[in-house]
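Quick one: structure for this chain?
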Amino acid sequence: MPEAPSTDITGEPAGRAGGLRLAARITVTLALLAFVLWKIDVRALAASVSGLSWPWVLAVFAVVYAAIIVSTWKWGAILSRRGLPAPFGPLLRFYMIGQFFNNVLPTTIGGDVVRAWEHSKTSGDVPGSAGSVVSERLIAGVAQGVATVFALAFVRVSPEMLALALGFLVMDLVFAGLFAVPRVAEGLSRSVLGARFGGTHDIVVETVREVRQTLRDPWVLVRVGLLSLLFQVCVAGVNYCIFHAMGVPVTLAQCLVFTPMIFTVTPLPISIAGFGVREASYVFFFGQIGVAAPAAVAASFLFFAIVAVASLPGAPLFAVSKGRVAA
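Got it. Here's what it folds into:
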């Protein structure tokens, strides 16, 4: 199918409005990063990175790929339940392509767009493919809040932090519940479908129907919910390994409390790839357990850098995919 004119790969219209939004996000990103770096000892930050324990760094990569495998499993579980089963290998390839785009495009939804699009080319079912991605996102969002509250039982935190964690859980539940609101549901579906299909009302409506039926399936909620919790443990494990690579003593439970909250805030569409927001969040949350600000910022940078490197295989996989289509 020919691509829609004047759009980027995410399906967002190009033009002056898009340029202004991008310029605003770049400005916010630079301002936040400048503020964070101004408030910390940059030499201490460099020292945190220079003395990394390479066995722990290798462990970080192992846990990153474990998280990707778990996430591919839960996506496949949704697709199978919706009558669109696919072998694990192709799904992993689509997921890796999505991971690559998540780390090179100035948007956190870009990878979902590409992942849904790649799967739809093999399934022939655009609403089913897009609906599976949206459903996975919504269930994963709730799992973030549940993981944080669960881990609180193993970590001593202040009453204020407890209230904040419960607030994040409520926010995640409300966001998933908003999918019952037609305008919200259609808007989210259009963001995944992009300009290629997002302007087609029938496809958007069908995608919303797919998501609602998925979220009403107890089997999906239990199985995918448990896999989503395992995914959150893996993501927290990435931070655990990063801090230990720097010689900073944190527990897995502490990482499981703070990591989901950080990555609930990071996707806010106010900066490029979450830069600035992520660093400030690391400083705030891990500062609650005494992690020095330079080490927290270093961990944030390392998280982004390692996940980006781990996502690089998605580039040749995408190139091969494009080559097959051209052939």
